[in-house]
Amino acid sequence: MTRILVVEDESAIAELIAINLRHAGFEITIAATAEDAQREVDRALPAMVLLDWMLPGQSGLSLARRWRADERTRELPVIMLTARSEEADTVTGLEAGADDYLTKPFSPKELLARIRAVLRRRAPQALEDAVRVGGLVLDPATRRVTCGDGGDVFEVRVGPTEFRLLHFFMTHPERVHSRAQLLDRVWGDHVFIEERTVDVHIKRLREALAPAGCDSWVETVRGSGYRLVRPAAGSMAA
Ligand code: CA
Predict the structure, then answer these.
(1) How do residues 189-225 score in pLDDT, each as one tens digit?
(2) CA 237, CA 232: separation in Å to the nearest integer?
(3) How far is the CA of 59 from the centre of ligand 1 (A)?
(4) What is the CA(113)–ligand 1 centre distance, in A?
(5) Which of 65, 100, 126 is the last residue of a domain?
(6) How much is the pTM?
């Protein structure tokens, strides 16, 4: 389930957001201060953060800046929430690294639309859209994976962890991901899970893809990590 961290010191607003987002199928964690939010992010990376600008102590704005400066959180999608509506503030928020900006009060419908738009752009593995890479197709809605073109389409049977791993690879093809990055983005935990765990699930994923002849698409990049490569044209027929 896609987890969103809501950083908001006004508990009534935080609860209202949480109720609406849980109803839409998201898992919600609430933090009331920047310090709590940082602790939460250190523990496990959420798929996205809704970040109130005005917080007691450290502001949401400075927290967003800090996340953008840190390699681990650089790509963490952030939507700033604020009571301010001055254009200069919007610019400041976006310059601090926010992906979008919502002025209170906003409707649940608007919030959901903004969340989906930012996830589609920044973290497509958090959405239920079907993904295709070459002849490999993964559909989160039906939890089906198929591989093949034309007449020969193989159903690929994968476990839940391999499914999430493959989903992440397919939404970020060609890029090399380190074991630590995969733990953060797929498992949501880089602290308590050993990097060796990644290797175990990569092996299982390749075994699942092997009958369809797609196992070589998951490449080991020595000293760096793993990546999913698109096969060269025509190689599917082999
Ligand atoms: Ca506030």
Answers:
(1) 666 788 899 999 999 999 999 998 889 999 999 999 9
(2) 11
(3) 9
(4) 22
(5) 126
(6) 0.81
